[in-house]
């Protein structure tokens, strides 16, 4: 498989939906559903790691270790 296809497979093939909440105390609230972007890596973690993972693939690394901040579920 070409390297660029491996890269593309890691990320959501389409934009995640934006959900608008109605009747929310007269305030317009929109929620970007990044929890739907990947079957294993949900939320904004993919956005944070996108270019690190791309670099790792392009340079032949087989593993990437990352961590999130305090109170994060990014382990």
Largest sheet composition: 2 strands, antiparallel
What is the domain tally?
1
Q: What is the share of helical residues?
A: 25-40%
Side-by-side strand order of the widest sheet: 1-2
The SSE string, one letter per element, is HEEH
Low-confidence stretches: none
Helix count? 2
- How far the N terminus sits from the C terminus, by CA atoms, comes to 29 Å
Query: How would you describe the shape?
Result: elongated
* Count of strand segments: 2
Category from helices, strands and their pairing: alpha+beta
Estimated radius of gyration: 16 Å
The chain-level mean pLDDT equals: 78
Strand content: 5-15%
Quaternary state, please? single chain
SSE layout and pairing:
Elements: H1 3-10, E1 18-21, E2 29-32, H2 45-58
Describe the fold and architecture.
This protein is an alpha+beta fold. The protein has one domain (3-58). The protein has two helices and two strands, in the order αββα. It has helices spanning 3-10, 45-58, and strands at 18-21, 29-32. The protein has a two-stranded antiparallel sheet. Strand 1 and strand 2 form a beta hairpin. The mean pLDDT is 78.
Keywords:
75 residues; 2 strands; two-stranded antiparallel sheet; alpha+beta
């Amino acid at each position: 498989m070409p390297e660029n296809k491996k890269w593309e497979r890691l990320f959501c093939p389409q934009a995640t939906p934006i959900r608008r909440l109605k009747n929310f105390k007269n305030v317009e609230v929109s929620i970007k559903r990044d929890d739907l972007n990947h079957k294993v890596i949900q939320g904004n973690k993919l956005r944070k790691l996108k270019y690190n993972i791309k670099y790792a693939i392009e340079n032949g690394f087989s593993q990437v270790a990352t961590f999130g901040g305090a109170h994060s579920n990014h382990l």
